[in-house]
Amino acid sequence: MQPFAPRSGRHRYQTPVTRSRTHTSPTMSPSAVEGNGVADVKTTLKPNIGVYTNPNHDLWVTAAEPSAEAVKSGSDLKHGEVSVAIRSTGICGSDVHFWHAGCIGPMIVEGDHILGHESAGEVIAVHPSVSHLKVGDRVAVEPNIPCGTCEPCLTGRYNGCESVLFLSTPPVPGMLRRYINHPAVWCHKIGNMSFENGALLEPLSVALAGMQRAQVALGDPVLICGAGPIGLITLQCCAAAGASPIVITDISESRLAFAKELCPRVITHKVERQSAEDSAKAIVKSFGGIEPSVALECTGVESSIAAAVWSVKFGGKVFIIGVGKNEINLPFMRASVREVDIQLQYRYCNTWPRAIRLVENNVVDLSKLVTHKFKLEDAIKAFETSADAKSGAIKVMIQSLD
């Protein structure tokens, strides 16, 4: 999911609730529906558990659906679905925000809600109607489930589907579980790619969608605002596309240092407390006096968006990837007299095959972004680490590999 602007509301953590039933179900030998018959899986199924939050900002791990018994029998699988054992899930800033703030714009946590939408895993059961996947396939799970019949879906822009079910966006449960059932068409084969890289195809898709629509080209001077996971992946993509020079901004010196290590030719710029106009002057100075053609804004922070508008050249483009407040103020006259194109993004569409090729062919290296790893049972600690600005975390990965 896209990055979002930090919110100044309460951020409260409560002791996680653990329910004993998650530990009492017996370990069992599963079966999986494959073709028109049943195939044994040479692993064991542990009880399904998930990571939940609620409107009270609690965070806990407890039993989740589908149950291990249902996965074993295949009884819950619908036409076109597969069961996936989730092996790796990245914590997105939106996951932390749903926990801390209880909402992102109109998307509100109203009950017990499972988080997580950056996931990859292994197919362990297949409905007889599915022919292109089999038990044992490694897949990245695209969290969209669009309707397929509305105008955006029929014109190939399924991210605009008003009936879409997006895993982890309330009230649709997310993928921080051991097992999920998901439409096979949205499970992308990843071959021998690591599960971690498979999980990171989701934020890579966010970056790719922005780059494609912003039309970043060879030799374009590009400004990237924000050195969080999306900004850093966008940096790798822009460098691979031949953008030059590239300047990345952030308020964190440690994140800028990480960006420099990730892409040595990037120019880093620490954002100071000053007006958007003065900030833009400092940014242009970092470019050596060149005004960027494109600004890819990855924070959603009002002041950062305004600085981007002030920074770009006449006829330049500010492409806003980050998610911010419901309403923000922008320097309208600056954008008007400079003919600045301002575009925004909502998730992604048709990006996953391209993203897979980029990782398979080592065009981008997503593995460097993973700074912390935790077991699913230790998800509370994982979220605390991800939410702690002092932890040095870039991407925290939750794993269920056994």
Automatic annotation (TrEMBL):
Comp. bias (Polar residues): 15-30
Q: What Enzyme Commission number(s) appear in the record?
A: 1.1.1.12
Q: What cofactor is this protein dependent on? A: Zn(2+)
Alcohol dehydrogenase-like C-terminal domain location, by residue? Answer: 229-360
One of this protein's Pfam families, by short name? ADH_N
A Gene Ontology biological process term = sorbitol catabolic process
Residues forming the Alcohol dehydrogenase-like N-terminal domain are 79-190
> Which terms in the Gene Ontology molecular function aspect does this entry carry?
L-arabinitol 4-dehydrogenase activity; L-iditol 2-dehydrogenase (NAD+) activity; metal ion binding
The EC category is oxidoreductase
Region of interest: Disordered? 1-37
Q: Decide whether keyword Secreted is in the record.
A: no
Kindly tell me the pathway this chain contributes to.
Carbohydrate degradation; L-arabinose degradation via L-arabinitol; D-xylulose 5-phosphate from L-arabinose (fungal route): step 2/5
Q: Which catalysed reactions does the entry list for this protein?
A: L-arabinitol + NAD(+) = L-xylulose + NADH + H(+)
Q: Which UniProt keywords apply?
A: Arabinose catabolism, Carbohydrate metabolism, Metal-binding, NAD, Oxidoreductase, Zinc
The UniProt similarity line reads: Belongs to the zinc-containing alcohol dehydrogenase family.
Q: How does it assemble?
A: Homotetramer.
Q: Under what name is this protein listed?
A: L-arabinitol 4-dehydrogenase
Organism lineage string:
Eukaryota, Fungi, Dikarya, Ascomycota, Pezizomycotina
